[in-house]
């Protein structure tokens, strides 16, 4: 199990964390001290970078996407859409941007 808590100050995060740990211990969970992390301004959780209370795409993911070769057929287009689909909530106007790519993946359409 993984849990996050946030707050406006380190003290607030510490107090919330203490309460969470207490509840989990009372419920019979075991907690490794090495897994408990203190307050941070930036973290990576489930592959998503969190900084200043906002989700961001990690720089290494952006680099991997930008160096991908443009798709040359339907299968490559589908693979590209799959690779970036996880990040759609972080890309403004994602559906408008990728709409032409989805069109070429339809059976009746030819890839040009």
What does this structure look like?
This is Reverse transcriptase/retrotransposon-derived protein RNase H-like domain-containing protein. The protein is mainly alpha-helical and 112 residues long. The chain has two domains: 1-40, no CATH class; 42-112, no CATH class. Helix content is 43%, strand content 10%. It is built from four helices and three strands. Strands 1-2-3 form a three-stranded antiparallel beta sheet, with no helix packed on it. α3 (74-85) runs antiparallel to α4. The protein is elongated, with a radius of gyration of 20 Å. The relative contact order is 0.09. The mean pLDDT is 87.
Q: Biggest sheet: strands, sense, closure?
A: 3 strands, antiparallel
- List low-confidence stretches: none
What is the total tally of β strands? Answer: 3
Determine the fraction of residues in helical runs and give it as a percent range: 40-55%
Organism: Hirundo rustica rustica
InterPro entries: DNA/RNA_pol_sf, Rev_trsase/Diguanyl_cyclase, Viral_Replic_Matur_Polypro
Protein name: Reverse transcriptase/retrotransposon-derived protein RNase H-like domain-containing protein
Can you tag this structure with a few keywords?
three-stranded antiparallel β-sheet, 2 domains
Brief rundown of the structure:
InterPro entries: DNA/RNA_pol_sf, Rev_trsase/Diguanyl_cyclase, Viral_Replic_Matur_Polypro. With 112 residues, this protein is mainly alpha-helical. The chain has helices spanning 10-26, 59-66, 74-85, 94-104; strands at residues 42-45, 48-51, 54-56.
Secondary structure blueprint with pairings:
Elements: H1 10-26, E1 42-45, E2 48-51, E3 54-56, H2 59-66, H3 74-85, H4 94-104
Antiparallel strand pairs: 1-2, 2-3
Helix pairs in contact: 3-4
